[in-house]
Amino acid sequence: MLKAYSILNKILQINNLTKKYGPVTAVKDLSFTIEKGNVYGILGPNGSGKSTTLGVVLNVVNKTSGDFKWFDGRESTHDALKKVGAIIERPNFYPYMTAAQNLDLVCKIKNVAPDKIDEKLELVGLLDRKDSKFRTFSLGMKQRLAIASALLNDPEILILDEPTNGLDPQGIHQIREIITKIAQDGTTILLASHLLDEVEKVCTHVVIIRKGEKLYSGPVDQMNASFGFFELKAAETEKLHRLLDEHPSFGKITQKGEILVAFLNEPLEAEALNKYLFENGLVLSQLVKRKESLEEQFLQLTNQISA
Ligand SMILES: Nc1ncnc2c1ncn2[C@@H]1O[C@H](COP(=O)(O)OP(=O)(O)OP(=O)(O)O)[C@@H](O)[C@H]1O
After folding, report:
1. Which residues belong to the signal peptide in this entry (predicted)?
2. Cβ neighbours of residue 100 under 8 Å, at least 6 residues apart?
3. Other CB atoms within 10 A of residue 162 CB
4. Model confidence over 56-102: pLDDT tens digits?
5. Where does residue 42 rank: exposed (0-12), middle (13-18), buried (19+ CB within 10 A)?
6. Would you state the pLDDT for residue 265?
């Protein structure tokens, strides 16, 4: 029973996917799974292989090796993709047709009933502009219309490549709110972004890639699972170093001038550390407890495999 449930929950599985463009390896041995109901972010700097990964699973880019399976392989990729809504390019509609006319045309092309047009326009905040011509829309409105269009057939999953690229702060905010609303309605979402802040605000899960390789995948809130570090100074630096080495809560210890930076493996309060050092005959002249911001952790992660 449990197994059947977990199979039904698998929307996409990517296994050891590699894509090479001649000498360039855009995606390298990438594996991750997308489960129903979550919002996934593929996060990585420009050129890290995000668009290529989306292109492969949407059958517009040929993979070099590895494989991917939609809906646990219950149907062909061609059929499975009918249940996927995707926007991977700049939205393009007929400029002299209205929003509603453009969506009506999409319904005809996709062979879906046009009865959801108003509902989807409402969802993206464009119902009152349904009779305006596409050419009069701002970039943000065009992007919102593209989202409405991708949702016309109520897909199981919505895929977006850099959904807020080029938008002003208000446009960015609107798109993020819409994505959150769509997710709350139960649609699974996969988006590619180079913005940590975007992934943090919108996603429940993240796959961080750099140069096509996965560096981290898991819940966004666990990305921030670092226990922090202490910056410490004492007259007897060597003794301080030794006592920290002997304490079970510390991992890496580095020295910055006269200050020792000691990274925690587990939670430890400043008071407890101060007491431990004092009881061992060491008096601190400086004690600061800090935690890397998510941004610092992300930068550390993406710099980790340089060159
Ligand atoms: N059609 C192509 N031909 C040759 N190389 C390509 C092609 N498409 C992508 N690449 C290369 O593959 C690598 C990954 O590119 P990709 O566009 O997938 O990254 P990305 O993370 O989506 O970046 P961006 O956000 O800048 O689009 C880059 O080095 C890029 O130059």
Report:
1. none
2. 117, 121, 130, 131
3. 17
4. 999 999 999 999 999 988 888 899 999 999 998 877 899 999 999 99
5. buried
6. 83
Q: Evaluate whether 176 touches 148 at the Cβ level (below 8 Å).
A: no
Shared domain for 47 and 114, answered yes or no, is: yes
User: What pLDDT sits at residue 18?
Assistant: 97
Q: Tell how far the Cα of 212 is from the centroid of ligand 1, in angstroms.
A: 9
| Tokens 């913005």 -> residue | 195
Q: What tens digit of pLDDT does each residue of 189-199 get?
A: 999 999 988 99
Residue 158 falls within a domain, yes or no?
yes
Whichever domain contains 176, its CATH number is: 3.40.50.300
| Atom 23 (ligand 1) nearest CA | 47
pLDDT for 305 equals 38
Q: Which one of 190, 218, 246 terminates a domain?
A: 218
ipTM: 0.96
Ligand 1 proximal residues by C-beta, below 6 Å: 21, 24, 26, 44, 46-52, 194
CA pair distance 141, 91, nearest whole angstrom: 10
Q: What CATH number corresponds to the domain at position 242?
A: 3.30.70
**In-domain check, residue 166:** yes
